[in-house]
Amino acid sequence: MKRVFLIVLDSFGIGALPDAAAFGDAGANTLASCAATGKLHIPNMIAAGLGNIEGVTCLPKTETPTGAYCRLREASMGKDTTIGHWEIAGIVSDSPLPTYPQGFPEEVLQPFREATGRGVLANAPWSGTAVIDEFGAQHMETGDLIVYTSADSVFQIAAHEEIVPPEELYRYCRIARDILRGKHGVGRVIARPFVGQPGSFKRTSNRHDFSLEPPAKTLLDAVKDAGQACIAVGKIQDIFAGVGTTEHVYNKSNADGMQHASHYAAQDFHGLCFVNLVDFDMQFGHRRDAEGYAAALNEFDAWLGEFLPTLGEEDLVLITADHGCDPGYAATTDHTREFVPLLVLGKGVKPADLGTRNCFADIAATVAQLLGVSLETPGESFVKEILA
Prior knowledge:
Alkaline Phosphatase, subunit A; Alpha-Beta Plaits; 2 domains; globular
C-alpha cells in the first residue's frame, strides 16, 4: 500500500469489555446509546460491516459487506486517550497512568504555584463546564488558575482568555508538564481556555494538550524512520508529544478534521495519515448528549461516503476508536471501558469478518506491514486476511 488513512472516532465504543465492572463501567455501550435515540443514520458504516461485528445487536447486518470488520479488546490497563492511542500505535501499557480522585498533592501544587506565581482553585475531579461555572468568577477576580482533573490521567488548567492569554496558559502547562514526571507522570496536561462572563462562560477552541512522551517506539516512529510521511491530524500531534510525525495540523471541529483528511487525500504522499476526531468525546460523550453524538456519527458517515471514492488503488482506510464514552451512561461523565470497532476499507480490501481481536496494537502491526516498515509490537497483523 502507498497510503493508509487511520481515523480514530474518539470514544466510539461498541459495548462493555469483560472487565468493565472493575472500571465502574458495567453495561456501557456508546453505539447502543446513539442507536437508541432513533436519530442514527450511518448507511456507509453499516454497509462496511459495523452491524456485523460480534456483539453488535443494535444495528442491521449486511449480507454483502464492503469492508473487513472486527471488534478490538483493549489490552492496556486504562480507558483514556493517551493509553488508547499508544496501544493503537503499538504499545501496550501494563500499568495505568496515575489518577487523582482526591485532587493533586502539595508536592505537585507547591512548585506549580511557585513557578507560575498564581494560586490554584478547585483541585478536584470536575466536569470541564461545571468547574468554570463554579470558579470562573473567582478566577477573574484573583487571577488564580482553575486546576482540576477527572477519572482520566489528566492535569487540566482552565483560564479566561482575557485574564490569561492562551500563550501564557500554554507556558503554565509546560511548567506543569515538567513537574508531572515519574510517579506523577499523568498522561496529559491540558490547557482549557474559556471566554464570557459569569453565568455564560464558554470554552474556546484554543485547547492544547501536552502529553507524556511514548515510552517506546511507535508506529509513527517506524513510518517516519523509513523516510515516509507521517501526517498527524487533530490531537494526534499532542497525544504523541510531537514524536514521530513529519507534518501536523490541528482541528477546530470534526468537520474541520474531515476536511483536512480530504485535503491530504488529494495530495501525493507515501505513508500514514493519522486522524483524530475529538468532538465525539469532548462535545457529546462527556456531556452525555446521545442525540448530539448520533448526529456527529451521521455527519462522519455522510463524509465517508464522499471520501472513499476519491481514494486510489493503493490507498486503505481504517476506522476505529480509542475507548468508549457512553452518552447514555448516567453513573459518571467519564470515559467507559469498551470494545472498539475496526472497519477496513479500500479498493484492494477483501471483505472479511476478523472476529474479536485481543489488542488495539493489531492495527499498528497491520499498518506497519502494509507500508513495509519495521516495528516491534505485541500486536498481530491481519494483512493476509484483508488483501485479496
